[in-house]
Amino acid sequence: MGRPSKGEAKKALIVQTALKLFSRNGYSATTTKQIAEACGVAEGLLFYYFGSKEELMRTVVRTFSFAELARGHGEEWRALTGKEALIRFATLYLSFLERHRDYLALIWSPELIRDERATGEVTSLIRGMVEEGGRLVARAASADGGGPQPSVHTVETGVSMLLSSLLAYFAIQGRSGERTPEADDAYVREAVDIVWSGVFR
C-alpha cells in the first residue's frame, strides 16, 4: 500500500485535530477557525474537504471503527479455537478503548447524544461491532464442531453483552487506577467464559 497523498494526510490531520478539540472543549464551543489554526491550514480547506462543521463531526464519528479493525484480524484468528478467537477479539477491543479515549469522551458526551444524526452514526458503528463479533464467533464455533449451532440473534446478544461488559470494566477500572495487563487478561477470559457458556450451553 502506498503512502497517503498530501490531501489524504491533511484530511486525516483535520479529523484527528477536530476529535481532540471537540472532546476537550465540546462540539459547539469549538470553531472551524480553531481547528484550522491548530492544523496550520486555511479555514476554507475544512469546508472544501467536509462541506460543513456538522459533516466534519460526523466524519470524526465514522472514522474510528472497531469493526474494521477486527475484520483486519479475521484471517489471523481463523486458526484459533472459537473461544480463543473471542478472547483475542475482546482483548483488541480493550486496546481500542485505551487508544481512543478522546473518541469515547466525544461520542458519549451529552451534546452528541442529543444529536440525532450523530447518534445514528454511533448506533451504526456499534451494530457493526456486534455483527463482526457475531460472525467471528459463528465461524469459529462452526470450525470447532460439535453440538447444534445457536441462532444469529443468540450469538449477537452474547457479543453485545461481552462488549458492554468490557466497556463498563474499562470505565470503572480506568477511573480507579486499578487496571493492569494481568487484570485485563483475567477479566477478558472470565467474561468470555461466561458468554461462551451462555451462547453454547
Automatic annotation (TrEMBL):
The UniProt annotation gives the DNA-binding region as: 31-50
User: Residue ranges of the HTH tetR-type domain?
Assistant: 8-68
Q: A GO molecular function for this record? A: transcription cis-regulatory region binding
Q: Which UniProt keywords apply?
A: DNA-binding, Transcription, Transcription regulation
User: What PANTHER family does UniProt report for this protein, alphabetically?
Assistant: HTH-TYPE TRANSCRIPTIONAL REGULATOR BETI (PTHR30055:SF234), HTH-TYPE TRANSCRIPTIONAL REGULATOR RUTR (PTHR30055)
Q: What is this protein called?
A: TetR/AcrR family transcriptional regulator
Please give the organism: Paenibacillus flagellatus
* Lineage of origin: Bacteria, Bacillati, Bacillota, Bacilli, Bacillales
